[in-house]
Design goal:
By secondary structure, the protein is α/β, with parallel strands linked by helices. It has a domain of about 260 residues: FAD/NAD(P)-binding domain (3-Layer(bba) Sandwich). Helices cover about 25% and strands about 25% of the residues. It starts with a strand and ends with a helix.
Length: about 525
């Protein structure tokens, strides 16, 4: 694979390819690796360079309609490897989607996916390999041991495992990718719009720019937008030349149903005895020669359907009463201070919490370090929930009023939570509390809605749903193959096609879906 600089491409020239892939993040890199063996000429366009640049950061700026959501330039990265660079510090936490995530759920007013878990089953192993994760290790039994038993399963609550990988599964592949024979990557190449032919049923060229005033065209048989959950929608919204509506937006579905994984810190689990606390090591972090994993609690499918709740997974963080009330607030503010920018939601609220509880805050400062190092008993757990968000058409990406330095409208994000999202948090804690108390394991206090301190909620920077899959263009943007409804040669890859989010981090699923797309594209090219 050749890494080329688009700033050296002459103005108003045309580059030909068989497949043009827009975005060199996990989805785009996966396509490049998988399409190499077709012998087709693949052109990968990356708006950034091979590392962080001021220009790349500036291009990720946008507008927020919701003051709770952080600045967009702190939620994504524009460079070769995309947002996978953000995993390097803490690693990549992965898990496949659950079968229930694909299924219709009329009890919560939710449609299913046009594909099922069986359609992704052949791709999980390869997806794990690309993410630098073991192909197995998602079952609780893979990690249990005499000193790390799982909590006894009940009819309502079970344990799920999240393996944690090294976080450089894609960035480490640069040398491998450079050896590809049929793939070229143009760096600093920003796709401005996709232009359709006179029939408006096929894309005939992509308009690309490297610097203001310098543009060139890419002509290809097939096009794939793989630029992330926000930029995929923005690119299609910008592509309306000579049309009544933007590409894929004949039914006003484009950019809607933006989903995140709301992260909420609320609730405290107090074990029945100190000995129980020491036995729950599976939920701290299990480190084995084959890898690392963390146990979470979740409600069973039966309980979710009965209680009409969305899915969620709950981590158990060893804590003390002082840390449960104010310690997490201090940790968040420390993170904000390190970056010298207000990137976290509810920063003002966090400061008010500390002002109202100065004694607890002081005790948290004293006790936080020993608790983290395991030098003193930690008699309770703070609950951290990662919540499935209800698909909500009012939660959306649109075009803003500000413009980037190419003169294009920036992305405008309205992140909207629904009443069902809030009910899921409280309802899940109620079911967890009843099940754990009935099993004699402990009690949950300070639940969502009756906390002594208000819960802190923020996003996971998981951008999903804005070009959702659907069987009909009236309810989505792409079909089951990822092809934009009404267009014969335009596809979308990545988590923007998710109709629902589930509770798992989206990377493994988006890579598996991209592998399925690569298989389809090979068929379109006539390759075996």
């Amino acid at each position: 694979m050749m890494l080329l600089d688009a700033r050296k491409v002459p103005h108003e020239t045309t580059i030909d390819a068989d497949i043009c892939v827009i975005g060199a993040g996990p989805a785009g890199i996966t396509l490049a690796l998988e399409l190499e063996r077709t012998g087709a000429r693949v052109l990968l366009l990356e708006s950034g360079g091979t590392g962080w640049t001021v220009r790349g950061k500036v291009l990720t700026r946008g507008e927020n309609g919701d003051p709770v959501y952080p600045r967009l330039d702190w939620t994504r990265l524009r460079m070769f490897g995309g947002s996978s660079w953000a995993w390097k510090r803490h690693g990549l936490r992965t898990r496949p989607l659950e079968d229930l995530d694909f299924a219709p759920r009329p009890e919560v007013g939710r449609e299913g996916w046009p594909v099922g878990s069986d359609d992704l089953a052949p791709h999980w192993d390869r997806a794990s390999e690309l993410c630098a994760m073991p192909a197995r290790g998602y079952d609780t039994a893979d990690w249990e041991g005499p000193s790390e038993p799982a909590l006894p399963a009940t009819s309502d609550v079970e344990t799920v495992m999240f393996p944690v990988g090294p976080g450089d599964g894609f960035t480490r592949r640069e040398a491998e990718i450079r050896r590809l024979q049929h793939v070229r990557c143009l760096l600093h190449a920003t796709a401005l719009e996709l232009v359709t032919a006179d029939d408006h049923q096929t894309v005939e060229r992509a308009v690309v720019s490297s610097t203001p005033g310098r543009r060139f065209d890419v002509r290809a048989r097939l096009y794939v937008a793989a630029a992330g959950g926000i930029e995929n929608a923005r690119l299609l919204l910008l592509s309306h030349r000579g049309r009544r509506s933007a590409l894929g937006n004949e039914h006003d579905q484009l950019g809607r149903y933006f989903m995140e994984h709301p992260h909420v810190r609320t609730g405290v689990l107090v074990p029945r005895s100190a000995s129980q606390f020491g036995a729950w090591r599976l939920y701290h972090q299990v480190v084995r020669p084959e890898g690392t994993a963390i146990g979470f609690l979740r409600l069973t499918d039966e309980a979710l359907r009965r209680e009409r709740l969305l899915a969620s997974a709950w981590a158990l963080h060893p804590s003390t009463p002082e840390m449960s009330s104010t310690g997490g607030v201090l940790t968040d503010l420390k993170s904000t201070a390190r970056t010298h920018v207000r990137i976290l939601p509810h920063t003002d609220e966090r400061l008010r919490i500390l002002a109202r509880h100065p004694v607890r805050a002081a005790r948290a400062v004293v006790t936080s370090r020993p608790v983290r190092r395991g030098k003193v008993p930690a008699p309770e757990y703070r609950l951290l929930g990662m919540i499935e968000q209800e698909p909500n058409p009012s939660s959306r990406v649109s075009l803003g009023t500000r413009r980037d330095h190419f003169g294009q409208p920036v992305a405008h994000l309205d992140w909207r939570l629904s009443d069902r999202d809030v009910l899921t948090i409280r309802g899940t804690q109620d079911v967890l509390a009843s099940a754990l108390e009935d099993a004699g394991l402990g009690t949950i206090t300070q639940r969502y809605g009756d906390d002594d301190l208000p819960p802190i909620l923020g996003p996971g920077f998981h951008h999903m749903g804005t070009t959702r899959m659907s069987t009909s263009p009236a309810s989505g943007v792409v079909d089951a193959d990822g092809r934009v409804h009404g267009l014969g040669n335009l596809y979308v890859a990545g988590s923007s096609v998710f109709p629902t989010s589930g509770f798992a981090n989206p990377t493994l699923a988006l890579v598996a879906l991209t592998l399925r797309l690569a298989e389809h594209l090979r068929g379109q090219l006539g390759a075996t």
